[in-house]
């Protein structure tokens, strides 16, 4: 059985397959209805949960070779929701997120390494309010049908990113420790 009439047709078919297969494997789409990004912090020693309503993520995860994986996340700071319109408006001001000047926060992964079954150690650059810092955190990953689920948390110090300037630098009212939590679901 002769599939290709000539070597040129074979070469073209090989190139198309070589380009198409990795491209299809790399395509993953963020499922915004199932994904969440939020934070937990303490105000007057009481835990407060808040979330970001708008964010995007581009994830090119290779389960066979996690070290070749790539990920980036961008968060719309104006979508921050503390559950109260007045508080939401307050945190967008210059002293807090300064969302007018810095409308987005971002994370770009620079390294993903397996640390056990379904577990990764992730390193990258976190940028908030114009300040960038190298960060590392553990992340769980699992395949559920045609979806991949990424769960993790990243503890940061808000003052390292100038979140809470002026009188808000005092950590007696709002603690310096903040945990960013995420549950990201992608489909292929």
Automatic annotation (TrEMBL):
Keyword flag Lipid metabolism: no
Keyword Cell division: no
Domain Lipid/polyisoprenoid-binding YceI-like: 27-187
SUPFAM superfamilies cross-referenced by the UniProt entry: YceI-like
Keyword terms, alphabetized: Signal
Signal peptide span: 1-25
PANTHER family according to UniProt: PROTEIN YCEI
Protein name, as recorded: YceI family protein
Lineage: Bacteria, Pseudomonadati, Pseudomonadota, Betaproteobacteria, Burkholderiales
């Amino acid at each position: 059985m002769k599939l290709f009439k000539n070597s040129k047709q074979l070469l073209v078919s090989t190139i198309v397959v070589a380009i198409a297969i990795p491209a299809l494997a790399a395509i993953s789409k963020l499922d915004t209805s199932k994904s969440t990004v939020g934070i937990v912090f303490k105000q007057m020693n009481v835990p407060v949960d808040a979330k970001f309503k708008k964010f995007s993520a581009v994830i090119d995860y290779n389960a066979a070779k996690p070290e070749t994986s790539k990920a980036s996340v961008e968060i719309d700071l104006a979508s921050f929701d503390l559950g109260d319109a007045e508080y939401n408006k307050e945190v967008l001001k210059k002293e807090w997120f300064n969302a007018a000047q810095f409308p987005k926060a971002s994370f770009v992964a620079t390294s993903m390494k397996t640390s056990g079954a379904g577990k990764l150690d992730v390193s990258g650059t976190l940028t908030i309010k114009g300040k960038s810092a190298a960060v590392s955190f553990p992340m769980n990953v699992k395949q559920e049908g045609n979806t991949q689920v990424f769960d993790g948390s990243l503890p940061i110090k808000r003052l390292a990113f100038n979140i809470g300037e002026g009188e808000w630098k005092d950590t007696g009212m709002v603690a310096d420790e903040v945990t960013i939590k995420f549950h990201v679901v992608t489909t292929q």
